[in-house]
Specification:
mainly alpha; Serine Threonine Protein Phosphatase 5, Tetratricopeptide repeat; globular
Amino acid sequence: MIKRAQEIDPLSSMIGVNVSITYQSQNDHVASIENTRKIIELDPNFSVAYEYLGLSYLKKVCNAEAIASFEKAVELSNRAGEALLFLGYGYGVTGRHAEAIAVAKELEGKYAKKETSGRNVAAVYAGLGEKDKAFEWLE
């Protein structure tokens, strides 16, 4: 169904990202990366594409590429909570704990100002392997 939507509107960045997410759910990260790169060629300022590109790179254990993608998403989104969650999670699962904690603290500050949700903070703590702290943020 989503491929049909892409056929109807091949220039829609959001539909394209949903195709990439579908590939990810099928563990076809090569196809997801290829599809997401095409989206970025058409819309290089679409931060969401970089988030999902980074996730596929993480699954392929291309950690440097994943972090670079997440950092680009944060830059393009003006440090939006959604983009920060991907960056913080990426830092956590790749062993860059100090940087992940810094992102978690930034998200906690945004949460206090009602600029992001607790689930974004929770995702960073999950990436760090701090399950109890992640669940606290989901309550």
